[in-house]
Amino acid sequence: MGGVVWIQGSPEGLLNWGPETEEKIKALILSIMEDVINDAAAKMREFISTRGLPSSKGSGRIDSGNMLASVDSEITIDGENISGKFGWLAGGEVYFLAQEEGAVLWNGGVIMPMLALYDAGQWAITEFANRVKAAL
């Protein structure tokens, strides 16, 4: 599981930085989280737009535009916790998940998985860790 690893000196040094430094670190983490989550939502939209099927009308999986337009992102601060999420946060239509995960149709046809949410999520986890490491 990922996380922030302290590699500069003893952990006591981190704890004794004082409240100003703690607030600066929180602000930095919040800024990185906002950027990564917004970038991940943009990456998800890019994947939807470019990972088409042979039956797609264009280069991606955009027929009505609903799946693309429904991608959103959100940052939540709850006390000491900062979290970010992206995807189809307001729900969406049933076919969104069939496109994302793939499906076998009643007529024997197959929808190959798009993996836009999954791949953007994997990218976000790695990118967040990389940006935090670079900032500290």
Largest sheet strand order:
1-2
- Beta-strand residue percentage: 5-15%
Helix % is: 40-55%
The unreliable regions are none
Number of strands: 4
Rounded mean pLDDT score: 87
If helices are DSSP runs of H or I spanning 4 or more residues, what is the number of helices? 5
Shape: elongated
Largest sheet: 2 strands, antiparallel
Q: What gyration radius follows from the Cα positions, in whole Å?
A: 19 Å
Query: What is the SS-derived class?
Result: alpha+beta
In whole angstroms, the N-to-C terminal distance is 19 Å
What's this entry about, in short?
Helices cover 51% and strands 13% of the residues.
Question: Can you describe this structure?
Answer:
By secondary structure, this protein is of the alpha+beta class. The protein has one domain. It is 51% helix and 13% strand. The protein contains 5 helices and 4 strands. It has helices at residues 11-15, 19-50, 66-69, 94-101, 116-135; strands spanning 72-78, 81-87, 103-104, 110-111. The chain has a two-stranded antiparallel ribbon with strand order 1-2. A hairpin with a 2-residue loop joins strand 1 and strand 2 (81-87). Helix 2 runs antiparallel to helix 5 (116-135). The chain is elongated, with a radius of gyration of 19 Å. The chain starts with 10 loop residues before the first helix and ends with a helix. The mean pLDDT is 87.
